[in-house]
Structure formats: C-alpha cells, structure tokens
Amino acid sequence: MDILSLFVIVPVLVILALVFSKGLKQARLIAMIGGIIQLGMAINLIFAYTRERAVNDSIMLFTRDLTWFEQLNIHYSIGVDGISVALITLTSIVLLAGVFISWKIEDLPKEFFVSLIVLSTGVYGFFISIDLFTMFVFYEIAVIPMYLLIGIWGTGPKEYSAMKLTLMLMGASAVLMVGILGIYFNSNADGGALTFNILEIAKVNIPYEAQKLFFPLTFIGFAVLGALFPFHTWSPDGHASAPTAVSMLHAGVLMKLGGYGIFRIAMFLLPQGALTWSWFFIILSATGVIYGAFAALRQTDLKYINAYASVSHLGMVSFALLMLNKTAWNGAILQSLSHGFMTALFFALIGMIYGRTHTRDITKLGGLLKVIPFISAIYVITGLALLGLPGFSGFVAEMNIFMGAFLHDDMFHRILTIVSVSAIVVTAVYVLRVVGIMLMGPVKNTAYLKLPAVTWYEKAGILLLLIPIVGIGVAPLWLSNMIMQSLEPFIRGVL
C-alpha cells in the first residue's frame, strides 16, 4: 500500500468502525484513535518526504497512477510536494484537536464523528491529487458534509446558514467545473491527448485566449471557498451557527482548499491568465483584507469576530499569491498554515467559553481572566499571534507576504500593499478590544464566579494547536525551506 493512499483508506476504515460502534464512549474512542493514527501518518510522511526529496528532484514525490475512466483519460493520480505535506499535517492536527474539543457531544455522536471524518477524507484526497477530475471529486466530498454538520448539530439560524453555505459553495463548484473543463479541452493544444493530469497539462502551451477566459472562472471557483470579497458572506453565518469542531475544520482546514486550488491549478496551469487578471483580483483581495478587519472591529459576537478576522487573513493569502513571486508565495503558504492553527484554536477557545457562560456576546462577559485563567491566557497568546507578534507563526507569514509584495516597485502594488499592511493595526485594535472587555475588569455576572475548570481533553486540543503556532514562529526555516523548494517549478512557469 502506498504511503499517500493511506490518507484516504484509514479515514474510511475509521468511518466503518464508527458505523458499528455503540454509544458515545465507543464513538469518541474510535474517533480519537483514528485521529492519532492519522497524525502519526502525517508525521511519518514529513520524514519520508524529507528523505526522498534529498535524492529525488521531481516536482511531486510518491506518485501513483491508476486508470479510473479510460474514455476521458481520468486517473487516480496522486503525489505530494512540500506544500501538500504541510497542509496534510495541518489537517491531521486540526482533526484530532476537533475530536478532543467535541469529547462531550451527546446528540448523535456517532453520526457527528462520521461526518467530521468524511470531511477530512475529502480534504486529504484533495491535497494528494494531481488529476483535476479526481481533485474535484474530493473537493465535493469535503464540502458536502458541511450542510449536515451545521444543519443538524448547529445553533441559531442553522438551517439558513447551512443552506446559504451550501448554495454559495455549490454555485462556486459549478463555475469551477467550467474552468476545469476549459483547461481539459485545451490540454491537447500541442497535439497530445486530452488529459486531466496537472503535471502533463503544465507542459502544454494553452492558448492565451483560453487562459484569459478560464483563469477568472477557476480563480473565483476556488476563491469563494477562500472567502474572497465580495463572495465571503456565507462564511461568517456558517461559523456562527456551526458547532465548535466544525468551525475549527471549516476555517482551519476546509477554507485552505481555496488558496491551494488557486495556487496548484489556476496559477500553475494558466500563468498568462494570472498575469492578465492579477490586477483585478489584487483589488478584491486587498479590499477583503481591510474590510474583514474593520468588520471584525464592529462585532460583539465572538464567532463573528473570528469569522471576519478569517476573511481578512485569508484575503492576505490570495493577495500574496497574486504577487506572483517566490517570497510572497512562501508567505501565502505559511499564512495558510498559520491561519489554520490560529483560527482553529480561537474557535476551540470560543467553544469552551460559550460552553461555560452560554453566551458569545463580549458585552455580557467580563473578568474571565479571574475565573478561567488558563483559557483566558491562551486566548491572549492566540490574539498576539493573530496580530503578527514576533515569535509566533503569524509574524513569519506576514513578513514574507509584505516583503514579497514590496518587490513590485510600481505605484499600484505599493498602494494596495500599504492598504493591506494597515489591516495589522486594525487587527491589534479588535484583538485588544476583546481582551479588554471580555477578560479584564470585574466579573460582570456572579454566576461566572464558579465556572468549570479546564478538562484534560480540552487541554489536549489546545496544546495540539498551540505548539505549531509557537514552533513555526520560533523555528520557521525548516518549514520555509521545504515550501520554497517546492515553489521552484511553479514560479518558473509564471515568470
């Protein structure tokens, strides 16, 4: 069995085990063991990839190709580079943390964990695929469970939020499918056979007119999932209604498919289209960065604050990708990873606070540092990481993004870079505002004086997410080097 297919097979086996489990204890034990195994597989993949990369300079490693549908040349083609490996590891960590945070779920626990792992299976499959059609199938597998997870286990206007999310993402999928088919039917421009294989298409000179037409379709198809302004409105509502673990996987992992798809497909396969359209999408991305920050500043609901913060920080990912240089791209990947860990940790902490106080309204909270000091201290640390304090992953990512953006010396890029940089100041304001209102001062409600202590499984979920945030911030070079090495063939195609 190849090392990559296990990331699809093991989750399926965990799902089957969950189907035959009985009761909450069995379901969460199976989900935890499955999550630990997948994290172990991801760590093993890092070491295996490092060893193989030392002797193999192929674009993708551990490749495997099986014919799926011969008439249309559709294959189960898989392979990874340093970027895929990093995102697979992110997925495994957030999934296991989500299992721990959902430890006490009582409403249909078996079905909840099954849906959660189906989502992660689609994400794993997406990150290992190098066939466009197979990648699209896994993309849909990852998106569809969100409707059930929010519609069944959510809170508030959950049916509305689930339907809005599903309709917008399905609409984006339709646009994306047109873009993928456009690439496919132009993949024989040099006289070869039609193919969905990304590495084979990259060798073809797709006509400029086709690139100019299909790049915006492919970009938007993926960017909607990445909460690109003005297509972001599904995300805050979805976050607000989703249960905690679902918000963690939604923001921490699922939304990364958008940036990864833009990079792996739109940028790599349609480079001339990227150069033509970059100015337009740079404006939208910069708008999203500053808009998301100011929108977060206006919110009082903790989930909405974090949701709009995600819109802002994911806007930086697309902004960096559109800079079309190696430094900014390195920053974009690091930002995807950093944001994944930070936003998942934020949602975990928000879930813990809500579970104890039964409110997410910061105006009704106060003095929590006195009654739940561990959760409050981690919230402050995560907030400092979010605003880009040195020593945390956010600083490393944002420095690469803005250094790469400033490599463009024209007025257009410089002005929009300054606009995006200013979002850091706004981020500091809304983070410190929440800390001041919610954590500092006297306890506003006497009922909060005896809140439950943090449990072992909550601490396990927190530490799983906090360690990478600090680790990347303190020692980023090994990860940055792995990413930079993988960027070489992609940047050559654009320049």
From TrEMBL:
It is a multi-pass membrane protein. It comes from Christiangramia fulva. GO terms for cellular component: endomembrane system; membrane. GO terms for biological process: ATP synthesis coupled electron transport; electron transport coupled proton transport. This is Proton-conducting membrane transporter. Keywords: Membrane, Transmembrane, Transmembrane helix. One of its GO terms (molecular function) is ubiquinone binding. InterPro entries: NADH_Q_OxRdtase_chainM/4, NADH_UbQ_OxRdtase, ND/Mrp_TM. Residues 130-416 form the NADH:quinone oxidoreductase/Mrp antiporter transmembrane domain. It is found in: Endomembrane system; Membrane. The chain crosses the membrane at residues 6-24, 29-50, 74-100, 112-130, 136-153, 165-185, 213-234, 246-270, 276-297, 304-324, 336-355, 367-386, 415-440, 460-479.
